[in-house]
Amino acid sequence: MSGIEKAISSFRGDFNCAQSVLSSFATRYGLEEDTALKLATGFGGGMGRMQNTCGTVSGAFMVIGLRYGMGKTGDKEARDKTYEVVREFTNRFQKIHGSINCKELLGCDISTLEGREYYDQNDFFEKKCLEYVKDSAKILEDIL
How many distinct structural domains can be found in the chain? Predict the structure, then answer.
């Protein structure tokens, strides 16, 4: 199963957007799936449903860090490569969706009951968020 298929399946299951993206790629880069799910939990809904950076984007940044990131060795080239790939991911995501900000992407405030009802009534799970999960996974498959 590809990272894209895994991310979609995870998101349609019990996991949030950030969890779905990170856990779908984590084992490729040495992070256990359960640890990835726990790590990414707070990033869903634009970081704890505060609607800042989209959870799919945060999840993707974590995957990029796993692949290219700087560890204890202080490898500054790895850090620079990570920043470069994060910018590339961001540019691609923004080109498709116009933003990486959850609130801008959804156009409603899911931190409120009214906003969550609007989200549900308009099926944004399928119409918007699933697309963000899928596109984040596609971009990762392409740039990693």
Answer: 1
The pLDDT tens digits for 29-81 are: 999 999 999 999 999 999 999 999 999 999 999 999 999 999 988 899 999 99
For residue 30 the two structure tokens come to: 């040495």
- How far from 1 is each of 9, 33, 95, CA to CA, in Å? 10, 15, 27
Residue matched to tokens 């991911």: 89
Q: What secondary structure, in 3-state letters, does 40-78 show? A: HHHHHHHHCCCCCECHHHHHHHHHHHHHHCCCCCCCHHH
Domain limits for position 115: 3-143
pTM of the model as a whole: 0.96
- Is the Cβ–Cβ distance between 40 and 61 less than 8 Å? no
Sign of CA dihedral 37, 105, 129, 68: negative
The pLDDT-based confidence of 1 (bands split at 50, 70, 90) is confident
